[in-house]
Protein 1
Amino acid sequence: MIELRDIAVQQGAFALAGVTFRVAAGAHAVVMGPTGCGKTTLLEVIAGLRRPTRGRVLLDGDDVTDRDPAARHVGYVPQEAAVFRTMTVRANLAFGLTVRGRPSGPTVAALAERLKLTHLLDRRAVGLSGGEAQRVALGRALAFGPRVLLLDEPFNAADAATRADLIALLTDERARRPLTILHVTHDRSDGTAADAVLTNLFPP
Amino acid sequence: MRVRGFHWALGLIGGGYVVLVAAMLLADLSATSPGHLLAAFRTPEIRAALALSLASSAASTVLSLAVGVPLGYLLARARFPGRGLVELLVDVPLVLPPLVVGVSLLLVMRGPFGRAVHEVIPLVYEPAGVVLAQFAVCGAFATRTLRTTFTHLSPRTEQVARTLGCTPWQAFKLVALPEASRGVLAAATLTWARAFGEFGPVLVFAGVTRNKTEVLPTTIYLELSVGDLETAMAVSLLMVAVSFAVLLALRRLAPETPA
Amino acid sequence: MRRVPLGLMAVVLGGGVAAFAVNRQSRPAPPLVVLVAASLRPVAEQVAAEYGEPVELRYGGSEELVAQIRLTADLAPADLFLPADASYLDACGPHAAVSPPLTTMRAVALTRRDYVPADWAALTAPGVRLGIASPQTAAVGKLTKRHLDGARWDALSARLAVTTDTVTQSANGVKLGTLDAAIVWDATARQFAPDLVGTPLPELAGVRAEVRVAVLAGSRRPAAAALLAYLTGADGRRIFAAHGFAPPDGPSP
């Protein structure tokens, strides 16, 4: 479950005021809104990368507002993918596990299979296409088993078939374990995949 | 065809500088002789100066990177009070005349803090002072290069690493630093070259004692002081040859992946 | 590949630090420290080689050495000061002892062998590019200006292509061909032989300077006086003479 209570962010001329919503545990919610309205900022607040000037963030009922991003167990797929380009695809996928000293072999192999990345595993992540990079970023965010997944326009470099594939993968993940997804997009067709669409979150 | 004309024009403008540098090298070459080169290389004092030059510029390069990486990172990423002042301060060694850097270091050493340091590590007119004098200037070069490097790296990968369970230190070490490796190498190259050729602060702060604080630029100064232009130019060419070798070796270390 | 630069740097740094450590450990009891004008290096090196005790020679321009004495007398004290000419001794306060003159230097006109000025008029003829060390920083400039009467100095000034920081720099200018002639000390001219030749001219005859050595006020080493005596004695004269420095004479005639 993701719950925001009266979240406000003030940074220079940009401001986000009084955002409140709740995404039920295990749901896949899509946030719609025009470019530049603060969707990315909202994800950063949930991931703990940006401190809100006001309000609380609750994940599965825990107040995590003051918790370090490393302790929130949130998978984050930023819009620009931000793959670790000095590492191999395998190291990218395994990162959340290796940094915690956990074994990564089987998890990474399975994820790579489902994301169609197996043939790229030993390649450095630097020359990947946009779609490949987004799949790596998604796999990297899922591999360590987060309770919440934050997606920022994750399919904008994917064709319709790939998109359907990835949505299926997310649905599958939610069926296998508790996972709440918050998915930011400006594309209405992404809304069809979700079981909740949040609009009008950002009062002018 | 039009592109070719454009490139020719650029080549003509930039080529003038290349010709100037090549002309200087050729002139140096004509001012000395193979005999002088060989004699210079056989002189024990000059060999000692070469060794100290290599050791001190390597040490001051590492020291410069050791402060340049954290400082460059902070200036690129962090917002803190006095940041503008810090930015100005780290540029001071780039502006100060080299002799003034040396005199300023001497003045610092006269103060209570300097005296305390000097008691533990003798610096004034000592070999370790060569490193400090080079470092005082080169730290600014390293910081400047690395600040630019980190400014051009998106903080996003580090943020993702944080959500994946990294402490800020781990994110820096595992993600930001490897991504900055080309910038670090560029900074190392620039810093080393500057340290190897540094003269003014070294002359004033470390003094000129053969077999002790003499580096190759000092040798050139010493030979010019007694009018031995041939040996001075021979040592200059030795410096050019050694720095070519080191800079080429550094370039080969550069990761081949694009930034 | 990725780890190589840092690893290599660590090795290089380690080597550098080790070199310093070895360097420091192998150093014996502190030697006498002598500040020597860079132009007197050949003399000082021979003295250090022949003198029985260890001597540490610290070189520099005479005015830089004066600054060193003023700035660091208590941090890194030196024992003796041998500047390019005795005028620099006055610039750094009282001394524990000052030697009698070790050599006397006379101003000459330095030129290439194929261009030797016959007289003063030839030296200051139109088109001659002259050089001299600056009257502000070097004794040869200061004393030449003081000795020549106004009109002669003006004639010289009109031909000056450059005033240099040190006397050796103007001599280097002649050697490189950027100057036709320079007013330098006879001892400087001998350092540039055989390429260049110094010509004494009657107009410059009175321009002379002495080299003296001083025991610095900050020196606490009795051995300093012994080195001063060595330089003043027969050995010192022999070594100065071997490098083209004339024996000292009495007051200017």
Note: Chain C touches chain A through one residue (CB under 8 Å).
Protein 2
Amino acid sequence: MDMNRLQPVSDNEWQIPPTGKMRVPGVIYADRALLEEMDDKVLEQLVNVATLPGIVRAAYAMPDAHWGYGFPIGGVAAFDPEDGVVSAGGVGFDISCGVRTLHTGLSAAQVRAVQQRLADALFHRIPAGVGSTGQLHLSPREMDAMLSGGARWAVERGLGEAADLARIEEGGCMPGADPAQVSARARQRQKDEMGTLGSGNHYLEVQRVAEIHDAGIAAAFGLHEGDIKVSIHCGSRGLGHQIGTEFLKRMVVDAARHGIDLPDRELACAPLASRLGQQYLGAMRAAINCALANREIITHLTREVFADLFPGSRLELLYDVSHNTCKEEEHRLDGQPRRLFVHRKGATRAFGPGHPALPAALREVGQPVLIGGTMGTASWILAGTREGMDKAFGSACHGAGRRMSRRQALRTWQGRQLKDALQAEGVLIRSPSSRGIAEEAPGAYKDVTAVVQAAHAAGLARRVAKLVPIICIKG
Amino acid sequence: MADASDGHWEHFEHRADIGVRGVGDTLAEAFAQAAVALCAIVTDPARVRPREAVTLHCEAPDRELLLVDWLNALIFEMATRRMLFSRFDVHLEDGRLRARAWGEPLEVARHRPAVEVKGATYTELRVCRDAQGRWVAQCVVDV
């Protein structure tokens, strides 16, 4: 990245002062090393986001930011409800893609004893990879109920546990979903995909808590060194992708009519106060519910596998976060409470202690912020902070972020060799695609620990625990 | 009309995702080649036998939007029919596209699909002639 365009605010915060059509500054949270490695396109995209109507305070990039489409991945921007916009590009295709982490109550030794069997059973039970289908085929009426009800719908159908709901954003059910805005084609894409993991960077991992960095918060989260956890990373599947595709085009075509000058077509957006803006919000919220239901169903399947291998085991949900969303939230702006529409594209909500959206058991310590790593390295659990609420509307990074393209990864690694090398280190990989493993090689990603350290040092979220994988089911 | 034996396709670099580019003497050929590039993200097109045909229609206000529509229509067919494609006949007329895509049902063991494609984007989207006067049709796709 061209460092000359950035003004340092601190070691982990950099500002791009507004010039030209920018309505607000751009702010990047990262240390110098991460910034120097960051693509110049991040800066260009952040500047473009800062030109959108009704944006407030600043356009933000998280420490894992990389070149996205329209918004940078790792981008956060909030808009005024009256003169602001909602952007389909600012949410992305995989609406509400996210991570959840489950406690297992099991020790590393217990799991090591049956590691192969557990890996094979999870791989067998959880549909993963291109073209995989779920067991559940929804009638049009059930599809509507799912799109309105989210994880709550899954629980009502016996595909989840009621105790999970308090530990999912919005209590597991995104209000304001409007299934009528979800097209027949989007529904068709979802017909056979409920309870499927997908492919690419999506995974289900069995992980061991390797390091505790904040003993107090870790205890409140139920994290102890040596514990075994399960983390699931996936999203709204074909339905979300189709909604993103359709609304992106409608927003591009209607931009001129709405008086919006798009510096990049991918920034396609519509005024929040317009009919198209409201239709998108209704469809996007339905896709959020689809993602929440999907993760709940995969959790259900995971619980069945664990119940078979570890009779009497109970998998309780620590928390479930969503990465690609636009949510209406209350934030303080110039000392005043304001309703804002916060876009997080490849960024995690990270609400601080005392936030009313948090369940009672977590309210004192802040929201768990679940950071997915790569299959060979580590994942992290952080906690939202009070200062983070003012820094980037209560947001933090979401993962390691790629540093190498898929093509370059394919030229560098072979899936089979990677799988063997990881197995020698005690990590079992199960995937239908050896090329997929190579494309997702740990070395193709940034150092997740450096990303997490920057988020911690910038005050976006506090480091709580580091988890290392022992089984990875890869789509 | 164009089919996959004319022109050529390639992938171009994008840090998180991947770019598809089709090049041909005619616009239709470039669109057909871009479709081969799209399918090559999922699997080697040489592994996909052109046994069944699917007919597609797209319409958009300009060439660039039409390319994105075309690729998204294929993504939809791949996802809902659980098929892979390798050969395309594309006809273009007055901003309308009519095409036949040839392929076969996905078989994981034989096709070894690497990744599914979520959608074609407007990033690096260009439909234009290159210095040699050949048509180039390209964009980044989200995987």
Note: The CA atoms of residues 20 and 38 of chain B lie 6 Å apart.
